[in-house]
Write a structure and sequence with these properties.
- The chain is of the alpha+beta class.
- It is globular.
- Helix 9 packs antiparallel against helix 15.
- The N terminus and C terminus are likely disordered.
- It folds into 2 domains: 247 residues, Aminohydrolase, N-terminal nucleophile (Ntn) domain (Glutamine Phosphoribosylpyrophosphate, subunit 1, domain 1), CATH 3.60.20.10; 215 residues, Rossmann fold.
- The chain binds adenosine monophosphate (AMP).
- The site of adenosine monophosphate has 18 residues, from helix 13.
- The site of adenosine monophosphate (AMP) has 18 residues, from helix 13.
């Protein structure tokens, strides 16, 4: 059995040796995945798909293709549009089977060896995998696999899947992949490829999204529907929670598509934050328009938290659909009171708090004409650390606003995410730093501050209130209700967030 990760031909990087701080943070990743089987322009279409998914991760991107003989790989730090559009790069990715990944690691290093797709040359042949999400037992698996002799070559939790495939007793590559999934806890939307197969898989809760599309009868997997739209592909259906779809090119050129459900059935629980912030507004996630959901959040927010004001101003871009909903429901005119500079990445991209704060100033500027002398309702999608709200309220006041009322289109965030959304440790969350909303309001300097209720959010996204017995969505950042065990957290002696939330309720 070949256990070490190998490098496909014509790579622009090489994997370095193991450099693992076992006591350090595991990687948490915000990512997008894409794959296509049977198309002569597979790599170019993958680059376009990844470009549409760029909002899911801006630090690095990678594409692997198979040309009938060799696997080929290009992995680069930076944006897809900067690194994957020239003809020479695409020429190094021949073949009609390709898949790719955009990545934003929230902790850990941004180094090429962590950039996906990860690839291994195994007994059963070459296999590449790309993962959106985060394994909550990634460290436990790493310890176990290293004890069994595995040599890790990245600090990514995803690498466990390759080592598990290498150790599986099953025969075929797809069977081994499915076998490996059985050991995982946490969130994953995964795309994998072998010489003849393109595979898509979602974790049993379906926390991260993944869709099946087609272009001229050729199957595609993508994190979001916006990646199908960019290449004129059709949406076929969502990959279901706990489902593995195997697309295979047969020797006669036919493509077969088989669905497997290896896990006990359970209710799908898509991450609510996909609707609040993460997904692109033109995407349809689990059958629901993200734009429609965000607008509904604003409508419900106007009902729950009305205020007398002259203008509704979004914190762009995240707050824009909710602000439109708020304006329509309240009858208060919508104005672009803040202009966003699109040449600066998302606020969270910069790794340190000081640069993050600087990033907010670089990114937004007040449109004085729309707000001077006015009573302003500022609408944003979420408050995490409070960095953005603090700066923006001050900026709006400096531009001459008479009153500033902050409205947030999601509930207060008390708990960290361990499933692939970047959130800081609980003590850094604004909601945990102040005992009351009034104190938070004073901190950000607004005249009033209100958040959408959890039921208001559920109604906006799914049309029903939260079912406390069997919640329709993954919502732990608001409620502390984590849908999987948090094995690594316990292993590192951290307090179980469930205990933290019980404490809060007791107080
Ligand atoms: P903060 O400034 O820490 O309170 O974060 C809230 C702001 O960051 C809002 O304007 C959101 O649109 C945006 N935001 C929320 N969640 C994330 C995330 N996971 N990554 C990047 N930006 C985010």
């Amino acid at each position: 059995m070949v256990e070490n990760l190998a490098q496909p031909r014509a790579t622009t990087d090489h994997l370095t040796g193991l450099d693992l701080d076992m006591n350090g943070d595991t990687l948490r990743e915000e990512c997008g995945v894409f794959g296509i089987l049977g198309h002569e322009d597979a790599a170019a279409l993958t680059a376009l798909g990844l470009h549409a998914l760029q909002h899911r991760g801006q630090e690095a991107a990678g594409i692997v293709s198979f040309d009938g003989v060799h696997f080929n790989s290009e992995r680069h730090l930076g944006l897809v549009g900067d690194r994957f559009t020239d003809a020479a790069t695409l020429a190094r990715l021949p073949g009609n089977l390709a898949m790719g990944h955009v990545r934003y690691s929230t902790t850990g290093e941004t180094v090429l060896r962590n950039v996906q797709p990860l690839f291994a040359e195994l007994e059963v042949g070459g296999i590449a995998i790309a993962h959106n999400g985060n394994l909550t037992n990634g460290l436990a698996l790493r310890r176990r696999l290293i004890a069994q002799g595995a040599i890790y070559q990245s600090t990514s939790d995803t690498e466990a899947v390759l080592h598990l495939i290498a150790r599986s007793q099953r025969t075929g590559s797809a069977e081994r992949f499915i076998d490996a999934l059985g050991a995982l806890e946490g969130a994953y939307a995964m795309v994998a490829m072998t010489r003849t197969k393109l595979i898509g898989a979602r974790d049993p809760n379906g926390i991260r999204p993944l869709v099946l599309g087609e272009l001229g009868g050729r199957p595609i997997f993508a994190s979001e529907t916006c990646a199908l739209d960019i290449i004129g592909a059709n949406f076929v259906r969502d990959v279901e929670n706990g489902e593995v779809i195997v697309c295979e090119m047969q020797p006669d050129g036919e493509i077969t598509i088989d669905s497997f459900k290896p896990f006990p059935p359970r209710r799908e629980r898509v991450c609510l934050f996909e609707y609040v912030y993460f997904a692109r507004p033109d995407s349809v996630v689990a059958g629901r328009s993200v734009y429609g959901a965000r607008k509904n959040m604003g409508i419900n927010l106007a009902g729950e938290a009305p205020v007398e004001a002259d203008v509704v101003v979004p914190v762009p871009d995240g707050g824009t659909p909710a602000a439109l909903g708020y304006a329509q429901a309240s009858g208060i005119p919508f104005e672009y009171g803040i202009i966003r500079n699109h040449y600066v990445g998302r606020t969270f991209i910069e790794p340190t708090q000081s640069i993050r704060a600087l990033g907010v100033k670089l990114k937004h500027s007040a449109n004085r004409t729309a707000i001077a002398g006015k009573r302003v309702v500022l609408v944003d999608d979420s408050i995490v650390r409070g960095t953005t709200s603090l700066k923006i309220v001050q900026m709006i006041r400096d531009a001459g606003a008479r009153e500033v009322h902050f409205r947030v289109a999601s509930p207060m965030i008390y708990h960290s995410d361990y499933y692939g959304i970047d959130t800081p440790d609980p003590e850094k969350l604004l909601a945990n730093q102040y005992a009351t909303i009034d104190e938070m309001c004073r901190y950000i300097g607004a005249d009033s501050l209100q958040f959408l209720s959890i039921d208001g959010l559920y109604l906006a996204v799914g049309g029903e209130k939260r079912d406390a017995q069997a919640p329709q969505f993954t919502d732990h950042y608001f409620t502390g209700d984590y849908p999987t065990p948090l094995t690594d957290l316990k292993g590192r002696g951290k307090r179980d967030p469930k205990q933290v939330s019980m404490l809060r309720e007791a107080v």
